[in-house]
What does this fold into?
Amino acid sequence: MSRKKFIISQGATCKNWNWSWSFVNESERFVIFGAWNRFNDIKKSLIFAEDWKINAKGMSSKGYKQSREHIRLVEEQKYRLMTFPMKPTETSWVNGQIPKIESFTPKLTEKTLVRDGISWYAADYDALIPLTEELDSPEKYPEGAKRTVTVNAYERNPKAREACVAHHGFLCSACDFNFEAVYGALGQEFIHVHHLKPIGKIRKEYEVDPKTDLIPVCPNCHAMIHRLEPALTIQQLRDLLAKAKTTAKTTVSESVSDSTEKLEKIVTS
It folds into this structure.
């Protein structure tokens, strides 16, 4: 099957079949990018970069403007991102030039778009923190499906994470930290999600309830929770935080008292 026939079979199209790097299905609201296997790692693969605007010959790349628009559809219009693996011909691989396709795998996989500097990557869902998605009714989501990679890893269902923050909000459940309150728009809707049942210990697919099995925590608290084995509970971490604050207040109070005594001695001497 040719790449054109494969894309058409997915209901997607483009402006020109000869130079297009990406494709769009308007009715189902998703875009398709080929993912170069030369840039793949376990978590993400390169699909677009700003320096592709000009090719090695110093000319404007015809596919750049269309693909940049497709990136915008994902970022701003919430289109889904679908990718298929591509292998380049090594002789055509030159820095600053988009290579020719030697082969591709006609299979789409839904990914999440991640920007890193001037490059955009198609990432596995567990490589980022999803945004809130409101739910009309309580649901349960399968999570923990094992897959074979360089090391054992577990796929995490993004809708479960979205449902968690939709229910619990974006405040840290341990220390009440609010990223938006501190960082403004940059911190809006940012939070980690902690699995109360560690996926790595279950080693099987299970049904995760976003309201009872997941809880939002800030990155610092998340790290402290997992610093001990077994991991701390949220209540245990809250107790430690309260104790630390009490100790800190006592230390500051004693320090102020000592400083006051020293100052009085200097004044009276």
